[in-house]
Amino acid sequence: MGAGLFNLRNLRRLSQALFLLLFLYLFLQTESKGFDELGYPVKVFLDFDPLIFLSTLLSSKSIIKLFYLSLITIILTIILGRVFCGWVCPLGTLNNMVSILRKKKTEPYRLGAFRVKYYILLFLLASSVLGLQFSGLLDPLSLLIRSLSISIYPAFNYGASAFFDSIFSLQVKGITEVSESLYSIIKKTLLAFDQPFYRQGLFIGIIFLTVLGLNLYERRFWCRYLCPLGALLGILSKYSILKKTIGEGCNSCGVCEKNCPGGSINSSGGWLQAECFHCFNCDDLCPQGAIRSGFFKERGSFIDLNRRQVLISMAAGVITVPFIKINPFSKEEFINPHLIRPPGALEEKEFLKRCVRCGECMKVCITNGLQPALLDGGIEALWTPVLVPKLGYCEYRCTLCGQVCPTGAIKRLTLDEKKKIRIGLAMIDKGRCLPWAHATPCIVCEEVCPTPKKAIWLERVSVRNRDGMVVELQQPHIDLELCIGCGICEARCPLVDRPAIYVTNIGETRSGINQLLL
Amino acid sequence: MNRREFVRLTAAGIAGLKMGAFAQMVMAREIPDLAVVEGSSHSKITELAIDALGGIRSFISRGDIVVIKPNMAWDRTPEQAANTNPVVVATVVRLCLEAGAKKVRVFDRTVNDPRRCYVQSGIMEAAKKEGAEVIYVDHRRFKEMTINGEAIKTWPLYTEVFEADRVINIPIAKHHSLAKLTMAMKNWMGIMGGSRRQIHQRLDESLADLAMIVKPTLTILDATRILLRNGPQGGNPEDVKVLNTVIAGIDQVAVDSYGATLFGMKGEDLGYVRTAAQRGMGKMDLSKILIRKIKL
User: Fold this and answer.
1) B172-176 and B218-227 beta bridge pairing
2) Are B23 and B95 members of one domain?
3) CATH code of B124's domain
4) What pLDDT score was predicted for residue A481?
């Protein structure tokens, strides 16, 4: 068996390659091309993700339409088992690829360790019932998109650009021309329009590389022991009809065990149904042809979840919530003024119940202004998107973040709706502003203010400079009714270190309490 | 000579005669300093304005690399009159290529996100359709250049402008709260790198300084739609006035001086026009130049 090219194992590899390429393609497409709509369903992988679906359902207590696609994954798993892990999951495929680098040796058969991922799943689901949405931190698709967006892709982009820049700056005849034409192709297809910069890029990158690195210790370590989505699919696969049998010819040679990425089969004849990715390594490689896949009646065995551990992990999930909630940010009036949320973001409590921290909004943000929060809104808001106007303002006619949000934490807005949403208000630091404090003309904030009737207006005044000379200039003021807090004034203020005009989230449309006007 | 050759030669002769007569007719009239053409076809008025100055061939030679600098700094659509009319830009691209230009490059250092500005202005699509290379500004191609002006001594400027054989400036006429109006001279802010926002502290001198080293072959001021208030971005259709006019000229000071009249102002009301005229960089006094007005 398995001698031909067209065996199931190679078919599986082809499927993995295609899904990984599709994923990476859609990832690269999660970038503005200048049009109002993005064009490609970039979040489609998350739409198929039942863990995101289930945890969002539990935490927000509402059904999100788009997630009906995840029912397909659920039904597929109920019939065929964890084929998603073996044939589709892009993180699984990356883990597979890194696993190849590992020195071949017999896998230990760690029954106990398999259980960990189920406990993680139960912890996450139990805490989501109480409104804590942490599943996105460990969901494999969310983790992958976030890591690529915030860390791996920016680093790749930086490295590639630096390489071509250095050749460009050398200006060697012949070589520079070749590298420049190569660069223009790569720039159009693979590289970002502008170099992205993110806070915590290194931190998030280290976590991701650790996940990949664990494969060197044990093949598909993450998928076997940690992945909560894998655990959910494992539970769903309990009644799947696609099964393995080990027939009479087995001489316990151990080939199957050595080559099983999920650690689900062992040479003593056991097969763990919920741990099997249906990669078809075992039946294609078995020298005796003793292993067969098919739709059999007899069930494989399951790892018994320790009842006590189940209760403990669920209880831990439940107990964790209040400990996280007792930080001051849970108080309505305790507001971090710099926690500027993207336009269309739900009210903070609802927002946190839905945001899965996948990082798509940050990837797509046209100015690179959306950044992952660290403790800006408490640990509960870890890696949620925050606008940092100094890094990038909110483009007036852009609605991309709402278009890519998989859970509706950021609402999808029409252009007209977007223009009316206030994410904060600008204030002027009169002690630093050139026309206010230094008798020097400047109107940049007014010039760039995007509202049709400008929210920044200028008052013509005469002031005296040090020599007693009268200088005619215009001093900026802010119309609190018109300002939407987009932050382009802050981003473009000539005082680049600490802008003399800056946005905080006071007045944000989504909040009932964070208001200043009657 | 067979019959076919005879017919062909005769036809060519007649055509040549006609062309010659037309050229004579044009040459007979003095070429004006400014051509002001009004009409509802924005492509036709652009073409006529250039024709009135002697035709595109008097500006573009075969094999030229041409840089066209429209104003497309803002994420706005054409009817909002914040960016140059794409039809005007595309027409100039077409004429340049018809005149044998090797390459026509179009770019601007935008204020809003470049991708949105290029697309939403409609300029990228329109110019590409006519065969232009519409390129995004590459930060590596700014080079610190000596200006030795009154306000600006050196500044990083976009090298492609200086490497090109011909440069055509196609600004739009708009309100601006500090410059009062932004037209031809102020459009050169779009080739400035670095922290160009600082030049607002001495805007008039800075713009005149900049115009000392950027000398376009031709300037075409787009006044098909002008922006009266809330410039330079606008956004409110009530602030837009449709004039269906383009103004073409070689002297950018004269172009700006004439442009001021569209808003009920005079050239001398604009500090940078005044400064540039005082430095002898162009003519501000409209009574001393020849203006040809054509109405379609």
Assistant:
1) parallel
2) no
3) 3.40.50
4) 96
Whether residue B20 sits in one domain with residue B78: no
> Positive or negative CA dihedral for B160, A368, A457, B119?
positive
**Given an 8 Å threshold on Cβ–Cβ distance, is A453 in contact with B75?**
no
When pLDDT is cut at 50, 70 and 90, the band that residue A404 belongs to is very high
B7 with B136, same domain? no
Does the ipTM exceed 0.85?
Answer: yes
CA separation (Å) from B156 to A450, B71, B145?
A: 27, 19, 6
**Interchain contact, A440 vs B201, CB within 8 Å:** yes
More confident residue, A509 or A303: A509
Residue ranges making up the domain that contains B12: 1-30
Domain check: are B22 and B43 in the same one?
A: no
Across the range A54-58, mean pLDDT stands at 93
- Give the single-character DSSP code of A82: T
Same-domain status, B190 and B285: yes
Query: Encoding tokens for residue A490?
Result: 């802050």
pLDDT in tens, B102-126: 999 999 999 999 999 999 999 999 9
Pairing of strands B240-249, B218-227: antiparallel
B105 and B81 in a single domain? The answer is yes
- What is the total count of domains within chain B? 2
Q: How far is CA A67 from the centre of its chain?
A: 17
Same domain, B142 and B26: no
Region A212-220 average pLDDT: 92
CB A96 within 8 A of CB A16: yes
CA A39 to chain centre: 19
**Which amino acid is it at B93?**
V
- Chain A nearest CA to B233, separation (Å): 7
- Span A347-369, pLDDT tens digits: 999 999 999 999 999 999 999 99
A459 pairs with which residues across the strands?
A475
Higher pLDDT, A30 or B4: A30
Statement: residue B16 has pLDDT above 70 = no
Q: Whose CA is closest to A242, among A89, A87, A119, A127?
A: A87
Cα within 13 Å of Cα(A450), Cβ side: 26
Average per-residue pLDDT for chain A: 92
How far are the Cα atoms of A433, B34, B49, B216 from residue B291, in angstroms, in the given order?
44, 5, 11, 19
B227 forms beta bridges with B174, B240
Of A169, A397, A493, the CB nearest to B75: A397
Best probe of the B interface among A447, A456, A496, by most B CBs < 10 A, is A447
Partner residue opposite B140 with nearest CB, options A32, A168, A496: A168
pLDDT at position A2 is 41
Q: Residue A406: what pLDDT?
A: 92
The pTM of the full predicted model, rounded to 2 decimals, is: 0.92
The number of angstroms, rounded, from the C-alpha of A271 to the middle of its chain's C-alpha atoms is 34
* pLDDT (average), residues A271-293: 89
Of A33, A165, A458, the CB nearest to B177: A458
Claim to verify: residue B17 and residue B162 sit in the same structural domain: no
Q: Give the model's pLDDT for residue A291.
A: 87
Q: How many angstroms separate the CA atoms of A375 and A222, rounded?
A: 26
Q: What share of chain B is helix, strand, coil (3-state, %, to 5)?
A: 45, 20, 35
pLDDT of residue B4: 58
Question: A314: left (phi > 0), else alpha (psi -120 to 50), else beta?
Answer: alpha
